[in-house]
């Protein structure tokens, strides 16, 4: 297969994947809607943690929302195969499920998952950054010795850590179904947005490629978008870093109001945000196209485009869609300072633009 053939095949595969995903998502909407219709209290939208961003007027019967979901699934099965001129229909699906039906639960869940993984990242980073194998072994042994010593002197209570992990696992099991459906809602918004983009590009078949979608132009505006996305991670990440000092601040001085466990979680969330911001820059840096030296086995090899595009697209969609529920929540709770601390309304679109530019430069997205 020639490089030209490969470049042509990549967008076609991406388009087929979007169509298939929209079709399968629509199929699952029917049983989920039936579940909620037949069991309003025990259904996924009747869970105690479910806080809808927007509620229906009191006069609307309770069965209307699940019936609407069933209808949306039935229509979506057909809309998944829509022609390019019907892209407004798929765009409506993206907006409704991504911004109006979605809640804050998925972004909260994603944030805590990233924070939970940060200790492993922090421990592994010094080992990976050492170039020689011997140096990595020595660094790894030193880190292991440090943690054993911290446990021996009681600085780290490993039995308590085990109890915490057990408790966390039990809690995740309790809310697993609810969270899965919330993620499914946001995923639907992302899937329909991807299908809309595919239809818009497909509708350009036979037309000349607009200048802004050429690789050189995409490189320029993609670079600006990636730096904007990076900047959006700074307010929250740097604010959390103040928790390393006696002057902890989050929308105002906190003083001694936070205990050690809360402080640690806050710092991990802050590190996760800053790490995500750095990854945004990968859309335009060399290490976004070729694995850097500190990646075992893969170092020096080309990065498969989808390795970067898939997670970046997921996060861009999540940030964009959660912007509306987040702003609504902040206003309801009189927490307007959160609106600037979490600029999802800029971060999501900027990361999405940077990802699109990356996909254009790597030949995954092209107007046809």
Automatic annotation (TrEMBL):
Keywords of this entry: Membrane, Transmembrane, Transmembrane helix
Record field: transmembrane: 17-38, 60-79, 86-103, 109-130, 137-161, 181-201, 221-244, 264-282, 303-332, 338-360
Name-wise, this protein is Uncharacterized protein
